[in-house]
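G., the chain you wanted modeled:
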Amino acid sequence: MDITAFMAGFMKKAFIYNRKKDSIEKIFNSLKNEIEIKPLRVWTDNSIYGALIIGFIAQLFISLIRFEIPELKHTSTKFIKMALLNLTVTIDSWMRKTKRFIHSNFDTINTMILRHNWAISGSWRGQ
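Predicted structure as tokens:
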């Protein structure tokens, strides 16, 4: 094997390694700055793994929203998260027989998510 072939193989492996490293760094940056996983005040490995899994599930949920709703493809994770945090659903039941769902605090993003995932028409907002 000559030096040119060796260097080409080495450069290819270095490029693949660097792309994987960059992807992992972006995920952790999103967990810290967008999903806002705070510094973990835990002392066991299982507690750390649990907190990271919850963060990854939140990131996955937001990624799936972006994938399923083309209008949100380029929307920031922070905006999607804030829209979902602000959405309020109150369940009003009378003696456990009938339930009425009262939705409030709508914005454009959470309205798109609700309409897409649950096929809710405009009537649920009193429109």
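The chain is about 60% helix and 10% strand.

Shout if anything looks off.
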